[in-house]
Design a protein that fits this description.
120 residues, alpha/beta, Rossmann fold, 4-stranded parallel sheet, 4 helices, 4 strands, 18% strand
Length: 120
Amino acid sequence: MRRRNFITIFVGATAWASGAYVQEPRHVIGLLSGFSDAMPGSLAAFRKGLEETGFVEGKNISIEFRWADGHYDRLPSLATELVIRNVSVILAYDLPSAFAAKAATKTIPIVFTVFSQLSG
């Protein structure tokens, strides 16, 4: 009977300890771009905007980056990688990326950004 009690206590303590380390569910943002790197200023602004709304990278969200490095034919497979990763949302940095994301999923929301340079 002592062995059974020990096993019961051990299993209960293990379950309790593993439950103590359960973190808040982390949302994953998939960033898809045909470029080798998005505009650094826009990424900094994006991260700042997320933080202002309570989403902190490394704390309660993470960002999965997929860069096509100018090889737009790679976008469909990169978009599929994000879908397989089951990201919460896909941020498409250019029109070809948005089309690739749209073709890859019907259930994951896609956010499309448009950048323009203002003269003046």
